Please model this.
Amino acid sequence: MVVCGAVIVAFTLCFEQGVIPVSQPIDMAKAMTKWSSTEILPPAAYDRPYRGKISITIANSEKELREKCELTTPKIIACAWVDYKGTCTIVRRDDKHLEAMAMPIAWVLRHETAHCNGWGKDHTGMRKPNKGDL
Model:
């Protein structure tokens, strides 16, 4: 992840099939103020690129996200699973929704990719973001 200036976050996930660049205009100072005391990022053991095919779907509403994820959990912004072919599927809320929450897309993708890497739904070892996560 790279901070460009003070307002653009770029995060690149590298996979066997290629590179997926993700950019999001966001005030990182605001994101850190809002989220620095919240455990959201995965433990280091799972915080790495997924070594297989990945599919990312954008859900434009909470209803659509819940339907695609088949979840009723409160405060859901994304979900992920690995299918029988080994494809990691991530479904996340749209950019506008995440920006309104001051939630960096990069953090969402890191969290969900960690689930594809075997991190459990119980979120054991979840950690708070720090300046190194900008």
The CA atoms of residues 3 and 85 lie 35 Å apart. The chain is about 25% helix and 25% strand. Residues 1-19 have pLDDT under 50 and may be disordered. Strands lie at 2-4, 8-15, 18-25, 54-59, 78-82, 88-93.
